[in-house]
Input
Amino acid sequence: MYESFFRILTSDKSYENEYVMRTVMRLSSSLNDTVLPYLNHLMEKLVMILRRSCK
Output
């Protein structure tokens, strides 16, 4: 599921899509401790996307 969201966020047209970003954050929040093993990978991708949108 995350891969699909990140595919959208890394495309040239929709990397600033706030709805997908909110969905990623809500999904992570709802998973609670289940997301912990994947948190480093998720954060790396989110930081990369945020850096791109800040330029």
About this structure: DSSP finds three helices and no strands in the chain. Residues 39-54 form the longest helix (16 residues). The chain has one domain: 2-54.
